[in-house]
Amino acid sequence: MFMMNYFDYSATTPISDRVNEVMQRCERDFFANINAKHELAQQSNIFVSGYIHRMIQALNITESSLVFTSGATESNNMILFGLANTYPHKRHILTTSLEHHSMISPLGVLQKQGYDIEFIPHINGELDLDYLKTSIREDTLLVSVIAVESETGMIHPLKKIKAICDEHNVPLHSDMTQAIGKIEVDLQDITYASFSSHKIYGPKGIGACIIQKQDIKPLIVGGRSLSKLRAGTPPNALIVGFAQALLDSLEHLKERQIIVSQRHQSLVEQLKHFDQIHFNQPKQGVNHICNLSISNSKRDQSVEKLSLYGCYTSASSACSGQEELSKAVFCITQNQDYASTSIRISLSHKTKQEEIDDLVNAIKKVINL
Ligand SMILES: Cc1ncc(COP(=O)(O)O)c(C=O)c1O
To answer: Which backbone phi and psi does 71 adopt, to 5 degrees?
Structure first.
């Protein structure tokens, strides 16, 4: 393989060797449709169910609350449209402007259908909880707040938000794609959550919803599956791969966090003295996402130059396309220059110190040092 220093782990991760092994074993020995009646189907069912059971225990949720989907995009769509179908008279949704496109786009569809989509503002980079308190209405369908914003790593205070939602008897959804398996989360803090396998060293093409309240109408109907909420033949190998990835990420959470924090600190220490660099650090942020601005170099330009030096970063979240200004960076800094020159460096426990040193040297070249 060609030499590369990968710093785009928040866009996607490679599958781990362990995940690869269990998936291959599953495809080879336990590939039968787990809803069929023959012996291989039963053995496949035992194999797959064992992994699902361990996943449920690790997440501390009930079996019926876990619904497999094709990824967080589908989970977000399922929750929004599924809830809208259940409660057609509730047409107000409170959310934030920092949601991922897989929320913003379906919210736009609902808005075109006449839904009132209201964005809870941020004040000095923090979500305005007083605004939330006074904005929940009789017809509020949902409050939806991303757990960890994907460009800057800003953490939203879900516990406090859930307490407000509970007071008003309104459900809370959180897109936890950048949180689960990366930081500690308490799933009691949400009514519905979305997350994805390929962000935590599992396969692409599978994710899940956690549905603590069983009131969502299915979007995909058809043949028997694992849940009434999502029809289709269960993808055995994707499920066990996802489960293994999740189990590994939860089991090794602390040690992974320590490595990631050391790499983040090293990057900051080595670059903070340069006038051309500004770190866009949220008040409450994760270590696996580091956002910085390089003065006089547009976002895409910096990413392209760094790529030429073998360092793969991103201008924003991969799904957001080419936005010239980062909403998330502007939210934190209130500074247009920082927002138009920011890049995201996303880190992993797999990131080596030498890779950070290479990145520092590459950034120095970009700023002509
Ligand atoms: C916060 C967030 N939500 C949703 C998604 C979409 O996930 P998936 O690729 O599994 O559909 C992503 C991926 O970039 C993400 O970062």
So the answer is: 160, 180
